């Protein structure tokens, strides 16, 4: 990843370099009107006034007094109490499309952690890579190996993300110094974390991948995966990328060699649940204390891959479909156009099904396949060097759709306000009719991310995601993920309250 940023800064200075080895998103209260004040009933009036009865008078000098008639009193009506209106509670506003609704970092985050370098979301769980985290540093038993980096597990409740735990490496598991969390993948109760050597010849590292599982509610490392061709002198980049679905893991080794001593790259497939102890059978999985066996079941190398193609720089997996990015694929004319490959599994065997390239819109230094995402019968392929329509290294992304078993181009996505050197496509995510694309060098490397939706057969940009606070060189958009009604975007150089370049993840409504 640092290689990619170094490359782009040199490009900004006017240099053009090859990508070899370079690492790359109320209404008012309704209150009822007070009823009219009840009016007391009119006084009941007798139908007639009683008349006094007169007694006949006898002749007398004293007249007999006439009795006075007493009228009947009218009862006073009791007024009906007036009901008091209860105010309607203020409704919680629904976040607008693209509105930021949260931000978080690791509880122990420090400078240069690179928190948010990679994201993996499933249901209400999120895995966040922090490959620069040195608080997990530990030496092997003989003091020969050192590991840095960690991966944080967050869980969502009522829309808010809370840190659950932190996954760290075991330096004794690999025979070299390495950075843990080069990439992360998550599915259900299993997580896979890639690890690369800290320093390697020509910056082409050795590597491995760690499997973690929840045991009685706690996360435990259950396996360490290495390629069957790995060795002390093998620098293949194994662990550069990882993907996970159910009992299958993909691990990209973008500098893996072939039988002709060239390095086209490869992607390894591991499956869980079969075989004898892998550490004895030599199938590539190693861990003495594992609870379930992982077996290397395939090694995928496209037939047309050439030297330095970078196969496995990015990988995606769902069910029996796998997508491999090869952004450095070079034509016989020397153009680094890049490719992506779709594989399908049947009867336990993987077959190259299609090459995903925009044949009519392919150019030098497009780097198609720099990032890939897969959801059902749809694939999103980034080409962060594409200069059409927004200029040199502005970037673009292509959508491919599978219909009746055949893959066809469904659309090309580019930022409406895109500009030179934005690197649109630094990372991509796909969920149904939503596509999220990072552009980490937009706005003087402050970065941005773009949301696209598919409606009536067309892909349209619906929002540009920007954090509430941002600075140049935050690299917002280094990583992206979609989870339910939320978009998550990593910014590996964002500052915290206590330190610079810590990294953070911002949450948006989609």
From TrEMBL:
Q: Which UniProt keywords apply?
A: Signal
Bias (Polar residues) occurs at 42-52
Q: Which PROSITE patterns match?
A: TAT
For this protein, the record's Pfam families field holds: FG-GAP_2
Extent of Pro residues compositional bias: 78-94
- Superkingdom, natural source: Archaea
Where is region (Disordered) located?
19-99, 272-291
Q: What is this protein called?
A: FG-GAP repeat protein
Q: Which organism is it from?
A: Halosimplex rubrum
């Amino acid at each position: 990843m640092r290689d990619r940023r170094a490359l782009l800064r040199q490009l900004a200075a006017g240099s053009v370099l090859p990508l070899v080895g370079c690492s790359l998103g109320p209404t008012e209260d309704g209150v009822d009107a007070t009823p009219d004040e009840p009016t007391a009933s009119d006084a009941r009036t007798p139908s007639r006034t009683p008349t006094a009865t007169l007694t006949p008078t006898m002749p007398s000098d004293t007249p007999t007094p006439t009795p006075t008639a007493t009228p009947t009193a009218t009862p006073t009506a009791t007024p009906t109490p007036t009901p008091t209106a209860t105010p309607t509670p203020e409704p919680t506003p629904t976040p607008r499309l693209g509105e930021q609704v949260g931000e978080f970092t690791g509880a122990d985050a420090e400078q240069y952690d690179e928190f948010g370098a990679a994201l993996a979301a499933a249901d209400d769980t999120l895995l966040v890579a922090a490959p620069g985290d040195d608080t997990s540093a530990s030496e092997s038993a003989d003091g020969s190996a050192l590991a840095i980096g960690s991966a944080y597990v967050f869980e969502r409740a009522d829309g808010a993300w809370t840190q659950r735990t932190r996954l760290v490496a075991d330096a004794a598991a690999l025979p070299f110094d390495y950075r843990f969390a080069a990439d992360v993948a998550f599915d259900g109760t299993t997580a896979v974390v890639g690890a690369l050597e800290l320093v390697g010849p020509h910056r082409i590292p050795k590597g491995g991948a760690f499997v973690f599982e929840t045991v009685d509610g706690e996360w435990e490392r259950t396996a360490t995966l290495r390629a069957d061709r790995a060795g002390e002198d093998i620098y293949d980049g194994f662990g550069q990328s990882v993907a996970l679905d159910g009992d299958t893991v993909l691990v990209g080794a973008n500098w893996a060699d072939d039988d002709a001593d060239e390095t086209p790259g490869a992607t390894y497939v591991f499956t869980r649940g079969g075989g004898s102890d892998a550490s004895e059978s030599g199938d590539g999985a190693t861990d003495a204390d594992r609870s379930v066996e992982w077996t290397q079941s395939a090694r995928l190398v496209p037939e047309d891959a050439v030297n330095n193609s970078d196969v496995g720089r990015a990988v995606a997996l769902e069910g029996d479909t796998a997508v491999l990015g090869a952004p450095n694929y070079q034509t016989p004319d020397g153009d680094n156009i890049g490719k992506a490959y779709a594989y399908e599994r049947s009867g336990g065997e993987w077959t190259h099904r299609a090459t995903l390239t925009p044949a009519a819109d392919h150019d030098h230094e497009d780097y198609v396949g720099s990032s890939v995402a897969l959801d059902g019968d749809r694939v999103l392929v980034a080409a962060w060097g594409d200069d059409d329509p927004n200029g040199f290294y502005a970037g673009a992304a292509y959508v491919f759709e599978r219909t009746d078993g055949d893959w066809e181009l469904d659309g090309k996505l580019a930022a409406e306000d895109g500009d030179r050197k934005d690197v649109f496509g630094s990372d991509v995510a796909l969920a149904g009719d939503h596509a999220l694309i990072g552009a980490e060098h937009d706005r003087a490397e402050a970065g941005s991310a773009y949301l696209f939706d598919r409606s009536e057969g067309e892909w349209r940009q619906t929002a540009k995601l920007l954090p509430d606070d941002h600075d140049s060189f935050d690299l917002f958009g280094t990583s992206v993920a979609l989870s339910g009604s939320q978009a998550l975007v990593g910014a590996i150089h964002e500052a915290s309250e206590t330190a610079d370049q810590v990294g953070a993840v911002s949450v948006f409504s989609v």
